[in-house]
Amino acid sequence: MRKLTTLAAMIAAVAALGAATSTASTGRSSGTLKGAGSSFVAPLVAQWQANYKSSDIQYNPIGSGGGIAAITNRTVDFGASDAPLSSDQFKACKGCVQIPWALSATAIPYNIPGLNGRLHLNAGVLADIYLGKITNWNSGRIKALNRGLSLPDLKITPVYRSDNSGTSYNFTDYLANASAAWKSKVGVGVNANWPSGIGAPKSNGVAAAVGQTKGAVGYVDVAYTLKNHLSFAAIQNKSGKWALPGLRGIKSAAALITKVPASGELSIVNPPKAAKYKNAYPISTFTYVILPTKTSSATELRHFVFWALTNGQQYGPRLLFVPIPKVVLSYSEKTLNKVKS
Amino acid sequence: MSSIATPQAAARAAELRRRGRFRPGDAVLHGLTLAAALAAVALLGLIAWKVTDQARPAIHDFGLGFLTTKTWDPGTRQIFGAAAFLFGTAVTSLGALLIAGPLSIAIALFLTELAPRWLRGPIGALVEMLAAVPSVVVGLWGILVMGPFVADHFEPFLKRTLGFIPLFRGDPSIFGLLPAILVLTIMITPIVSSVSRELFLGVPRDLKEGALALGTTRWEMIRGVVFPYARSGIAAALILGLGRAVGEAIAVTQVIGGNVAIHWSLFQPGDTLASRIASQYQGASSAKQVSAIAYLAVILLCFSLVANIGAQVIVRRFAGRHPVAR
Predict the structure, then answer these.
(1) Which of A259, A287, B250, B271 is the least buried, fewest Cβ under 10 Å from its Cβ?
(2) Residue A154: its chain B contacts at CB < 8 A?
(3) Residue B65 domain flag
(4) Please, is B320 exposed, middle or buried when counting C-beta atoms within 10 Å of its C-beta (0-12, 13-18, 19+)?
(5) Interval B281-317: pLDDT, tens
C-alpha cells in the first residue's frame, strides 16, 4: 500500500516536472533576465512579463531592501526599489545606476468600524498620529477635517513596516516634508525609529494588521490597497484640495519634476501650493530599477528596460501607475546607455 | 575486552586485521567522514568569523554599551543598541518555555504511560506534525486567527483576573509579546515533547514495574522512577526548545509588533534579536546599520553557544548523580 502511494507520488512528480520543462521550452525567449525587489512595482512587472517577447523576465517581489541587496551581490540582473539608493548603498553596489521606471502612490488605509463616510486627513494630523501626539479618533483635530462623520471614541493604532521598505521611504519623506517635528525627531528612510504604534512585515503584513486591528491606520501602495478592498483616506494637499491616490492626483504631483539630477533621485511628495499642482496627491513616488553598469547581459537588459520605459508604460494606468513624464523618460534613456558589457 | 572462543576464530580475526590494514575502502571512508566532521567545524568557524568581521565597526563604535542602549534609530541619528531586543528575546523565549515545558512533559507522559495503546500513535504523530508547519504559516495564523482571539478574549480575560500584576495591564492588541510567546510555544512544544517521549520510553520497564510492585500509585511511580531517570534528558530537551525559541525569526516578526521599547506589559509590542535581524538586514540603508545588525547576530551566536554548553554541563552534572541509572 505504502509502496503504491510512493510510486504514485513519484509519477505525479515526474509528470509535473515534464509539464514545467515543456512550458519553459515553449517560451519565446532568446534569454532570461532575473530581477528582484520592490513589491510595489510587482503588479506592473507582471504585465511586462506577459507582454515582453524578447527575453524571459523572472521577477521576485522580495521588497525594495531585498532588491538592493540582490543587485549589490549580483545574484540578479536587475534590482527594483521604491527608495533611491543611499550613498552607502551606491558605494556598496560598485558601479550601479538607478533609473526611474514607474510612478505611483502610497495610500493611507484605515480601520474604523461603522464609519459613515470616507476619512479625511492632512499631513500635520498624520505626522502627529505617527508621533503619538494624537491618540484617539475623536480628537478635535481629526473632527475638524471630517465634519459630518461620527468619529468613535477609539484608540488610534498607527501601523508601520518593520522591514526596510520603499513605501516607508515615501511615507517618511512626505511626513518630513510636511512636519518639522517629524523631520527633526524621526527623519526620512526605508526604516525609522518609530515613536509609536506597531510594526508588521511587508505590504501584506501591514494590510493584515490594519484589517485586523480596530482603530488602526497604515500606509500601503495603492495597487495593493485597492486589490485588498481596504478603505483609504482622502489627503489634503498644499493647495487645500482633497486628493485621492488616483491617476489624476499622481500625474499632477509628477509635474513637480522639471529637471532630473545626476543621481536620478526624485522626490514628488507634497508639491507646493500652485494651480498646476491643485489636484496633486501628496504621497506619490517614482520607483527605480537598479542596473549594474558592467554586465554580461547588457544588451538584453537595455532592450528590456527601454521597452518598459516606453511601450511598457501603457500597462500602467489600469494598475494605477502613471506613465512617466517626458523629462524623466529622456533622463532614463540616457542613463540606460551607461549599461555596457 | 573481547574474549576469543576458539583458536580458529582468533586466526581469522588476525587475518582480517592484517588484510584490513591495506584496504583502500576503509581509508576512503575514514577520510570522507573526517572531512565531513571537519567541514562542520570549519563552517561554524567561518560563520562566526564572517559575522564578527561585519560587526567590527559597530563593536568599535558602540562597545559593550550596545548591550544597555535602548535606542535603535536607523534614521538621522544612527544610534543603535540591543537592550530592547535582549529584553524581548528573554521575555518571549522564557515565557514560551514556561508554558511549553510542563505542557510537553504532560503530553509525553500521557503518550508513554497513560494513553490507551491505540491512541498513542495518532496523537504522537499529530503533535510531531506541528513541527512540520512552516514558521511563516504559523505566523500568518498568528495574525489572522490567534491574534484576534487573543485581543478580543484572552487578553481581556487576563486583564480582568490578573490585572493587578503589571504584566497583564494595558490595551489588548493582536500584536505584542504575548502573541509572540504563544506562537513560540506552539513551535517548541513538538520538539520538547517528542524528545521527552523518547526519554520516558527509555526508562527500563523493570524499574517501573518494581515500583508498581512496591505498591506505589502511578503518579508516585512517575515521580520516583520516570522523572529521576529522565531528568538530565528533560533539561537538555528544554534547552533545545529554548534555543529554538531564541532563534525563531519569521513567525515572531509577524506577531510581535516590531517596536523598540521595553514594556512590562505583555500586551505591548516589542522585538527580539532574531526578528530584528530578519526584518532589517536586507536593504539596510547605512553601513553602520548593517554592522549593528551583525553585532546583534554576534550576540545571538554567543547566546546559542552558551546555551548549548549549558545544556551539556547540565546533562553531565545530572548524569553524574543519577539515582537509578549508572
Answers:
(1) A259
(2) none
(3) no
(4) exposed
(5) 887 888 889 999 999 999 999 988 888 888 888 777 7
